[in-house]
UniProtKB/TrEMBL annotation:
Domain of life of the organism encoding this protein: Bacteria
All residue ranges annotated as the Cytidylate kinase domain in the record: 5-216
Gene3D superfamilies in the cross-refs: P-loop containing nucleotide triphosphate hydrolases (3.40.50.300)
Protein family (similarity comment): Belongs to the cytidylate kinase family. Type 1 subfamily.
Keywords: ATP-binding, Cytoplasm, Kinase, Nucleotide-binding, Transferase
Protein known as: Cytidylate kinase
Single GO molecular function: kinase activity
Organism, as annotated: Roseburia yibonii
Compartments, as annotated in UniProt: Cytoplasm
Enzyme Commission number(s): 2.7.4.25
Residues involved in ATP binding: G9, P10, A11, G12, A13, G14, K15, S16, T17
Reactions that this protein is recorded to catalyse: dCMP + ATP = dCDP + ADP; CMP + ATP = CDP + ADP
Record's keyword annotation contains Methyltransferase: no
């Protein structure tokens, strides 16, 4: 039986950075489920579909074939045979992912793929509904969060470093909108699983969060 670690939490809490590090140290496979929702969103954007058009989006789900592959240990998302990993990080795609991930057809398709991946290998999977819905039997569940100000500041610093001009108030507003949508949607909203350990990273650096998670894994295993 494979061993699974579920990490959920709001946008910008550092889930992917942390999960990647833990995966490396424990020799697990890291699965970034947000990237799958982003790849679907990228497909809908390319097709010019409105995020409000649930009918069209549901219909188009069957035409967007998503799979993942690994290149030098990094997850790649393949959409209809094309590696779209480099195109899905833009804010536009993130916002479309947040808007379209509310639809049952989108979620059902991706949750099935995620469950399959977790059956095959030991995974550390991050997202919004992993502990509550995708892997309810995961051996370790973490709910990783941080204050909205901290998350906005981290995102601002990240974009600045890449030379992207940005405004911290706008970033914070974007994060708040995304959190609200993720937490209030009807199907599998973002929430802490009853058996998840809450970790607030507002006052912690990456090493401290990684250590805390490894400690939780040891205690559980
Ligand atoms: O984590 P990331 O920002 O890449 O996710 C993009 C969007 O995909 C989230 O805002 C959320 O709406 C959606 N998502 C989801 N369930 C997951 C992972 C991501 O609904 N398991």
């Amino acid at each position: 039986m494979s061993i699974n670690i579920a990490i959920d939490g709001p946008a910008g809490a550092g889930k992917s950075t942390i999960a990647k590090r833990v995966a490396k140290e424990l020799e697990y496979i890291y699965v970034d489920t947000g990237a799958m929702y982003r790849a679907m969103a990228y497909y809908f954007l390319q097709k010019g579909i409105s995020p409000e058009d649930e009918g069209k989006i549901s219909e188009e789900c069957k035409n967007a074939e998503i799979s993942i592959a690994y290149q030098n240990g990094e997850q790649q998302v393949i959409l209809n045979g094309e590696n779209v990993t480099a195109y899905i990080r833009k804010e536009e795609v993130g916002n479309m992912a947040s808007a379209t991930s509310v639809y049952p057809k989108v979620r059902e398709k991706l949750v099935e793929l995620q469950k399959e991946l977790a059956k095959k290998s030991n995974v550390i999977m991050d997202g919004r509904d992993i502990g509550t819905c995708v892997l309810p039997d995961a051996q370790v569940k973490i709910y990783l969060t941080a204050s909205v100000q901290t998350r906005a500041k981290r995102r601002y610093d990240e974009l600045k470093e890449k030379g992207v001009s940005c405004n911290i108030e706008e970033i914070q507003k974007d994060i708040e909108d995304r959190d609200y949508r993720d937490m209030h949607r009807e199907m599998s909203p973002l929430k802490q699983a009853e058996d998840a350990v809450l970790l607030d990273s507002s006052e912690l650096n990456i090493d401290e969060v990684v250590l805390a998670i490894e400690k939780i894994c040891k205690e559980k295993g």
